[in-house]
From TrEMBL:
Residues 14-217 form the Metallo-beta-lactamase domain. It comes from Nitratireductor aquimarinus. SMART domains: Lactamase_B. SUPFAM superfamilies: Metallo-hydrolase/oxidoreductase. PANTHER family: CLEAVAGE AND POLYADENYLATION SPECIFICITY FACTOR FAMILY MEMBER (PTHR11203), INTEGRATOR COMPLEX SUBUNIT 11 (PTHR11203:SF37). This is MBL fold metallo-hydrolase. InterPro entries: MBL, Metallo-B-lactamas, RibonucZ/Hydroxyglut_hydro. It comes from the Bacteria.
Length: 395
């Protein structure tokens, strides 16, 4: 029997975390934070003390999947931390923005703890077999499949089956699929969203602000827009490394992205906003250069386009609510047809959606009847040979 603990990201967006145990070995998949939350709600709700965790696996370096790493180490986690080389490179910048300031330097992961692997590599912890695959979400991003006791759980983390930039490897069949439901039952194809964004940017080609995460969506935006643009200067090295990471970007997109990046002009915080579209990192305006850039754009009446999740109370959400910024969703998570196809390809297993609220889960259930709409952070599921048993609270 496998035990699956939902430690964050269920019935909510943020602090994504899952633990899987076969009774002898316990592993943790992701350790995110919840932007906009405070206190204990900011971090995953651990089902067991950190000393019971035998290994930690990180899917990618976005804050809702890695932001609680320093907190885990502060609480005493000393075991191995598995991640790709790209996630390792991006980790310090993410933790600098979202980890507790008092924990950041004293409890940063040590090199000796980190175990690097490549997407597609098979790993193990005790008798648990862990399969990985490229997620299509960011360079170095992965999904995880955990097999033990004759049962298999697949945790997708964040995935993009039809990314214009990043390849995704197929998910395997399983008994329980924990799937990226960030978009709920949104049926609009990613290509259509990207076209809408491209048109909006072209309409404001003489100057607009595009806040975006440093990894993932930045390259999706660069692929979508076809007008001269600027970037915050500190993004250039990281974006170039993402484009040229071996096998991480579709081969026929590498030269196009590299040429567009090379042609982009540099912009620094404090300079006048440029007479062209400007990409700055942190897609919510919570941290990084996008926070002062959004303030400057609002003051100057400079057009703003937000394109991702905006937590309640974030600068980006406030601007959209006030009509001071536009919002068009950039396709960096699976839409409804993609999630239906993923579920069917996995053998139509029991399904739990992560990274969305209860209303979105209810809407998705109309199309995927195997979805367990009541799954919430704090729940435990046990998978035996015949059934999946749910428990409302951690035991």
């Amino acid at each position: 029997m496998l035990t699956v603990d939902l430690q964050g990201g269920f019935g909510e967006k943020g602090r994504t975390s899952v633990a899987v145990s076969d009774g002898d070995t316990r592993i943790m998949l992701d350790a995110g934070i919840k932007v906009g939350a405070t206190g204990d709600e900011y971090y995953p709700v651990l089902a067991r003390p950190v000393g019971d965790i035998d290994a930690l696996f990180i899917s990618h370096a976005h804050e809702d999947h890695i932001g609680a790493l320093c907190r885990l180490i502060h609480e005493g986690y000393t075991g191995p931390i598995y991640m790709t080389a790209e996630t390792r490179t991006e980790m310090p910048a993410t933790l600098a923005q979202y980890a507790d300031a008092a924990e950041l330097w004293e409890f940063m992961p040590k090199d000796a703890q980190i175990r690097l692997f490549e997407p597609g590599e098979r790993l193990s912890a005790g008798a648990l077999a862990i399969e990985t695959g490229a997620s299509g979400h960011v360079v170095g991003g992965v999904w995880f499949s955990v097999e033990g006791q004759g049962r298999r759980v697949v945790y997708s983390a964040d995935i993009v089956p039809e990314s214009a930039v990043f390849p995704m490897q197929p998910l395997p069949s399983c008994d329980l699929l924990i799937l990226d439901a960030s978009y709920g039952a949104d049926p609009i194809p990613g290509t259509e969203r990207a076209q809408r964004i491209a048109k909006w940017v072209a309409d404001y080609a003489d100057g607009c602000l595009l806040p975006t995460p440093l990894s993932g969506r930045s390259l999706e935006l660069i692929a979508a827009i076809d007008v001269p643009f600027a970037i915050e200067a500190g993004m250039r090295e990281a974006l170039s490394a993402q484009i040229h990471a071996p096998g991480a970007v579709y081969e026929d997109r590498v030269d196009v992205l590299a040429e567009r990046l090379a042609a982009a002009r540099d912009w620094n915080v404090g300079e006048a906003l440029p007479a062209c579209p400007l990409l700055v990192h942190d897609g919510m305006g919570v941290a990084g250069p996008s926070r002062p850039a959004l303030a400057a754009a609002e003051l100057a009446g400079y057009p703003i386009l937000l394109s991702g999740h905006l937590p309640k109370g974030s600068p980006g959400a406030r601007l959209v609510d006030q009509g001071a910024a536009a919002w068009i969703r950039m396709p960096t998570h699976p839409t409804l047809p993609e999630n239906v196809a993923l579920w069917e390809a996995a053998g139509r297993p029991a399904l739990i959606g992560h990274s969305c609220d209860a209303a979105a889960l209810d809407a998705l259930h109309q199309h995927i009847p195997a979805l367990l709409t009541g799954a919430r952070t704090g729940d435990t599921y046990q998978i035996d040979k015949e059934t999946i048993h749910a428990h409302s609270d951690f035991q």
